[in-house]
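Sanity check. The docking grid for fe (ii) ion depends on where the pocket ends up, so I'm generating a full predicted complex first rather than guessing from homology. Inputs follow.
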Amino acid sequence: MSQTSPVPANSIQHSKDPLRFIDVDHVHFYVGNAKQAAFFYAFCFGFEIEQVSDLTTGSRESASYLLTQGNIRLLLTSGLHAEHPASQEVAHFGDGIKDVAFTVDDAVAAYEQALANGAQSAYEPREVSDEHGTVLSAGIKTFGRVVHSFVSRTGDYTLDRVKHFGLFGPRFKKMGQLGVNDYNRANPCGLFYVDHCVGNVEMGQMDNWVNWYSDVLQFKLFKHFDDQDISTEYSALMSKVLDSGRELIKIPINEPAEGLRKSQIQEYLDWHDHTPGIQHLALLTSDAIDSVAQLRHRGVDFLSIPDTYYDRVWDRVGEIREDTDKVRELRLLADRDDQGYLLQIFTKPLQDRPTLFFEIICRRGSQSFGKGNFKALFESLEIEQERRGNL
Ligand code: FE2
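Predicted complex below; grid placement will be based on this.
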């Protein structure tokens, strides 16, 4: 039997740097129907539906599915009754991301250090354990409805074991044989890493959250970003990028800016219960052509890019290793900075509300975010906003 218990704050030895992140432990979605969402993300994006925790494994409050691909772990959770936080949040926000969780050496020490640095608690340390090991987690509040959990693992539940098909924690079990998993193994989509995760906050709040990440989690303002290019008449947003260090994850923060038409960030907030949240996850591939061909074949709905974009893009970007005809055919966007180039593409919203979407990104040296594509991209986004009656 597994058990959950609060953890006394002084029970754990503190390591030297408690906020040293080992990895992104998982990205936790709250969704209306986790069983169905698991198939959507598996079929459209190639994730393996690897494990489940539900009534059959003794989870009486919620059902969760662990989806994996490369080093990406998505946890999809639905409440099993109206009072469960996942049910309540879905009622307010629709499906979306609740938690970007980091693996640390000691979740209690990380949590206490973050509180000492000025964070507010989202939930106190709690330990779930059984005869195979323990998963210890504690959470702090970041912008809007979003939480960062710190997770430390022992026994059979260490992240290394999880990465090699070990169980995610107590009350999880492996899925049985599934056709969609067999199909994905034979037809991989090639996504392997969470490159960045973007937050949308209210107008005037971006710098507060930039300071928060710097003070609380010791993130650094990313040097390669050029402030001068972030607000155009098309973009109507401001953005600053925070870097966790150790090449782990970057977190850009957007805020709406005044423009001729309604900011895409304001549209997000309007449909997200006027609450900040995560706008997109960027998933890394090492072969954009193969990945995006696979995703298109599976019916993923991407933002459309006009033909005229390809008239001039190669003057700006120069030579690339990929076949430019294929780049055009797949409607990939390209950009270059002083370190190299990147290819990227953006899905339309992943649910009915114009909130969360995915970006697929392939980096060939470039460490930036495709600012050369802002104009083309925002023109395309405005067409979508107009279709939704939100301009
Ligand atoms: Fe992005």
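Relevant for the grid: Residues 12 and 175 are 34 Å apart (CA to CA).
Also worth noting: The domain at 3-185 is CATH 3.10.180.10 (2,3-Dihydroxybiphenyl 1,2-Dioxygenase; domain 1).
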